[in-house]
Design goal:
Blueprint (H helix, E strand, L loop, with lengths): L4 E4 L3 E15 L5 E12 H7 L1 H16 L8 E5 L5 E12 L3 E3 L5 E3 L6 E2 L17 E13 L2 E15 L40
Parallel strand pairs: 5-10, 8-10
Antiparallel strand pairs: 1-9, 2-3, 2-9, 3-5, 4-5, 6-7, 9-10
C-alpha cells in the first residue's frame, strides 16, 4: 500500500466541526469509534491555486492503481446553495479517529493523545475556551491515508493538526426572549486561556 501523502488545505470555513469534543463514528464493521471531524468549505479557486486538488487527485489515481479501480472517490463534495446550484466551493471531509490506547511492537500498551493539536493564527500553541463551532475560519494539516477494510477501499483525510484563524464557539450570541439583561451572579465572563509550551508546527509563517 502506498505511503500516506501530507497536504495542507488553504484557508476555509468549517460547516461542521467537532475537534475538541469527539463524537462516535460508525465503521464498516458496525462498531463505533470516537472521532474528531471537520467539514471544511474551501473555494475551488483556492484549492486549484494551492495545488491541493491536483496533488490529491494524482494520489487518488495512484492508490486506485494499487488497490483497484473500485476505490471510493476522494472525501470531497461540491457545495450547493439552497436552490441546489454549485457555489464554486468544495467541502473537504476531514477526520481523526481516537483510539484510547495501542500496543507497540513489544506488546506494551501506550496511551494515545486524546485531542487534536491546535495552533493559532500566529503559529503558536492555542487552546479553545469552549466548543469550537461552525463558521470558524481555519486550515487543516492532513495526511491522506489509503485504507482497504472489509471490501471498502478509499482514502481518508486524516487530521494531523489544525490552525485556527478566526474562532466561532458553539452557543455564541444571546437569547432575547427575556428582554433586557438583569443583575445576577451568572453574568458571562470570558475565562483565561490555558497557556501551552511552544511546540513546532506543521504550518509555516504566511
Amino acid at each position: 500500500m502506498l505511503k500516506p501523502l501530507e497536504l495542507i488545505t488553504p484557508q476555509g470555513i468549517a460547516s461542521w466541526i467537532n475537534i475538541n469534543d469527539s463524537k462516535p463514528d460508525k465503521g464498516p464493521d458496525g462498531s463505533y469509534t470516537p472521532t474528531y471531524k471537520v467539514d471544511l468549505i474551501v473555494s475551488k479557486d483556492a484549492l486549484d491555486a494551492s495545488g491541493f486538488l491536483q496533488e490529491a487527485e494524482q494520489y487518488h489515481a495512484a492508490v486506485s492503481k494499487d488497490l483497484g479501480s473500485d476505490i471510493r472517490p476522494l472525501p470531497i463534495k461540491e457545495e450547493l446553495d439552497e436552490s441546489g446550484n454549485p457555489t464554486g466551493n468544495l467541502i473537504l471531509k476531514c477526520k481523526k479517529k481516537y483510539f484510547p490506547e495501542r500496543k507497540d511492537d513489544n506488546g506494551k500498551v501506550i496511551k494515545n493523545e486524546t485531542r487534536v493539536n491546535m495552533i493559532g493564527a500566529d503559529n503558536h500553541p492555542w487552546s479553545p475556551i469552549g466548543l469550537i463551532g461552525k463558521g470558524t475560519k481555519m486550515q487543516v494539516a492532513l495526511k491522506l491515508n489509503p485504507y482497504n477494510m472489509g471490501g471498502n477501499k478509499g482514502i481518508t483525510f486524516f487530521i494531523e493538526e489544525v490552525r485556527i484563524i478566526d474562532v466561532v464557539y458553539y452557543g455564541e450570541g444571546k437569547s432575547n426572549r427575556f428582554g433586557d439583561a438583569v443583575e445576577g451572579n451568572t453574568i458571562d465572563a470570558e475565562p483565561k486561556q490555558e497557556e501551552q509550551p511552544e511546540v513546532s508546527s506543521t504550518f509555516s509563517d504566511f
